[in-house]
Amino acid sequence: MNATITTWRRCTEMAVYVDDMYLEPMGAFGRMKMSHLIADTDEELHAMADRIGVSRRWHQAPPKCSHSHYDIAMSKRQEAIKAGAIPISLRQCSAMATRCRVKGHLGKPEDALDWLRSWREARAAARAAAVSEVSSEPQPGN
User: Parallel, antiparallel, or unpaired: how do β-strands 32-39 and 59-60 relate?
Assistant: First the structure.
């Protein structure tokens, strides 16, 4: 691995990730197979895109999509991994994007699925409690 990338990752404790969307039918774009390139910050994301030769015009960000990312071809995926991007699953990518919307950071891919499961359970419990609270209030005229 490039020493500059290793130092960069160690100093910032942030990383760039590339998923395996190309394995799924949704990863097909015509004959090309695509993956998502994501990072905690747009600066990191654009720096990696520049490093691997992906044009800034391919950047996708809210409000057009839920999370800032690039869709990249398999050849660029391999270049990104060689340049220090961390391979993750499509499910991890989705969970990390959700965590970023909720908490403001991607977090670690290792705990992304557990975090998503816990967050969904807590959200469902809060909704159930709110519904229960509303239904137990006295109704006007009773």
Answer: unpaired
Q: φ, ψ for residue 70 (rounded to 5)? A: -120, 140
Burial class (CB in 10 A: 0-12, 13-18, 19+), 39: buried
Query: Integer distance in angstroms from the first to the last C-alpha of the chain?
Result: 72
Tokens of 28: 């097909």
Tokens coding 11? 């100093």
Q: Is the pLDDT of residue 43 over 90?
A: yes
Q: How many residues does the chain have?
A: 142
- Domain range annotation of the chain: 3-135
Specify the pTM. 0.80
Average pLDDT over residues 120-132: 90
Question: What is the β-pairing status of strands 16-18 and 86-87?
Answer: parallel
Contact 73, 52 (CB under 8 A): no
